[in-house]
Design goal:
With about 90 residues, the chain is mainly α. It is about 75% helix and about 0% strand. The protein contains two helices and no strands. It is elongated.
């Protein structure tokens, strides 16, 4: 059967256990206050503004996309030409 716990029950704790519990309690309390201080500091910091895209940046990205499209278009033309030549060779056989 289970041991009943009452006011006459004696619990033995070693000095090492008591010190360990104290250290854990102090460390936990220290972390709690540090966290609270960090939260308070974060609340006071200014909110970062939304990043703005400059006209120059927009134009550069637009030009890069257009160049990529043109390069892809040229690659497609080359591939079509290659496919046409391959089809011609196959038709000759």
């Amino acid at each position: 059967m289970a041991t009943e716990i009452g006011k006459d029950t004696k619990v033995k704790l070693s000095l090492e256990t008591i010190i360990s519990l104290g250290v854990v309690l102090v460390a936990g309390t220290g972390m709690w206050f540090t966290l609270q201080a960090d939260i308070a500091e974060a609340k006071e910091l200014p909110v970062a503004p939304d990043p703005e895209v400059t006209r120059m940046e927009f134009d550069m990205k637009d030009q890069m996309i257009r160049n990529t499209i043109m390069t892809t278009q040229e690659d497609v033309k080359e591939l079509k030409e290659s496919v046409r030549r391959i089809e011609d060779k196959l038709d000759r056989r």
